[in-house]
Amino acid sequence: MTQSDLTNRRILLASRPDGAPSPENFRIETVPLPEPSEGEVLLRILYLSLDPYMRGRMSAAKSYAKPVEIGQVMEGGTVAEVIRSRHPGFSEGDIVLSHSGWQSYAVSDGSNLRKLDPSQAPITTALGVLGMPGFTAYSGLLTIGQPKPGETVVVAAASGAVGSVVGQIAKIKGARAVGIAGGSDKCAFVRDQLGFDAVVDHRAPDFAAQLAAACPKGVDVYFENVGGKVWDAVFPLLNNFARIPVCGLIAQYNHGADEFPGPDRLPVLMRTILSKSLLIRGFIQREFVDQRQDFYRDVSQWLASGSLRYREDVVDGLDSAPVAFAGLLEGRNFGKLIVRVATEQVTS
Ligand code: NDP
C-alpha cells in the first residue's frame, strides 16, 4: 500500500450534548491523507487517550480551555508513529506523544511532540501513569494535599487513571489510603492489587456509613475527583486542617449548573472551612509544569520498584471512541481508558 492509497478517518463534534453525550453528537468522516510540508511530519496515530475533560470541550460553557467547535476534530492526547518526516528533528519510525485528536493520521510541525522510548516503558503509559493523568495525581496530591505519615487520604474514582496513582503515592508517603470505587470488581482491584488500606463502594446503600467506618480517625486529605454524593459523604469526616485538592467533579459533568437546586449549603460550607481551617484548592495540572521532571523521575522509579501499579482499559478501533467516552462518564471503564487506533507495526 502506498501513502496515496491511505485515507484519514476522523471524528468530529457534530452537536453539543444536552446531558450525557451520545453517538449522535459525533460525526465520522473519511478524508484524503494530509501531506506534510517542509518542516513537518506525518503521524500515524496508534493510541488515543479518552479523558473526562473532553466532556467540557464538547460544551460551549465558559471554562479554563476553549471548546471544540462544531465540525472540528475532537481534541485528545495521542501516541503516534512518524511515518514521513520532512523535519530535521524526527525520523520515520519515531514514536511520539502528540495531541492529534480523534483521527487516524495527522500532520505536525513538531512543536507539540515528545519522543518516547519504547524500551523504557510501554508506549501507552505516556497517556496514563507516565502521562497527564499520572502527573495530575502526583502534582495535585504532593503540592496541595501534602500527605504526612499516619494521615488518612481519601480518593474517589480510585481504580481510574488519576485516583489509582493518588492512593498509591499516599501509601508511598506513609499515609493510610482509603479508596472509593463503583462496584465489587473495582473495589477488589483497589484493595488487592493496588494495596489501598480500605475501599468503599459508592453504589452501596449505606455508602456514607461505610466510609465513616473506613476512616475512624477522620480524613486529613480528600483528593476530589467526583463531587456529588461522594463529597457529601466525605465532608462531615474532614479533620481540622484537612487539605482538599479539587481535581475533578465528574458526577457533575453531564449536568448544567441550574440542575442542582436543593437547599443553599454555602453557609454550612463556609462555616466549616472557617471553623476547621480547611484548605480547599482547585487546580489544573498544567499549572505545575515545572514539576514534570521530578514526576518522570519519581514515577519511573516507583514503577520499576513495583511500589506503583497501573491498569489500562484498551478498546479497539477509532470508531469505538464515542461509545467508550460516554461510558467513561458513567464508570463503565476499568482503568485508564485508551483507544487502539492502529497496530504498532510500521506500515509498508
Ligand atoms: P477515570 O479513569 O477515573 O474514569 C472516570 C471514573 O469516574 C469512572 O470510571 C467512575 O469510576 C468515576 N465516575 C464517573 N461518574 C461518576 C459519578 N457520577 N459518581 C462517582 N464516580 C463516577 O478518570 P480520570 O482518572 O482520567 O479522571 C478522574 C478525575 O480527574 C475526573 O474528574 C477528571 O476530570 C479529573 N482530572 C482533572 C485534571 C486536572 O488537571 N484538574 C486532569 C485529569 C483529570 P467508579 O466506577 O469507580 O465510580
Would you kindly provide a written description of the structure presented here, covering whatever features stand out?
- With 348 residues, the protein is of the alpha/beta class.
- The protein has nine helices and 15 strands.
- Strands 3, 4, 5, 6, 7, 14 and 15 form a seven-stranded mixed β-sheet that branches. It has a six-stranded parallel β-sheet with strand order 10-9-8-11-12-13, with helices on both faces.
- α3 links the parallel β8 and β9.
- α2 crosses α3, α2 crosses α8 and α5 crosses α6.
- It is globular and about 65 Å long.
- The termini are close together.
- The model has no long low-confidence stretch (mean pLDDT 95).
- The structure holds NADPH dihydro-nicotinamide-adenine-dinucleotide phosphate.
- The site of NADPH dihydro-nicotinamide-adenine-dinucleotide phosphate has 33 residues, from α2, α3 and α6.
Brief rundown of the structure:
The protein has 348 residues and is an alpha/beta fold.
Features of the shown structure:
348 residues; alpha/beta; 7-stranded mixed beta sheet; globular; binds NADPH dihydro-nicotinamide-adenine-dinucleotide phosphate
Secondary structure tally: strands: 15
List ligands, each type once: NADPH dihydro-nicotinamide-adenine-dinucleotide phosphate
Uncertain segments are none
Secondary-structure-derived class:
alpha/beta
Strand content: 15-25%
The major β-sheet equals: 7 strands, mixed
Envelope shape: globular
- End-to-end separation in angstroms reads 7 Å
Give me the strand/helix succession: EEEHEEEEHEHEHEHEHEHEHEHE
Helix content: 25-40%
The tally of helices reads 9
Radius of gyration: 21 Å
Mean pLDDT: 95
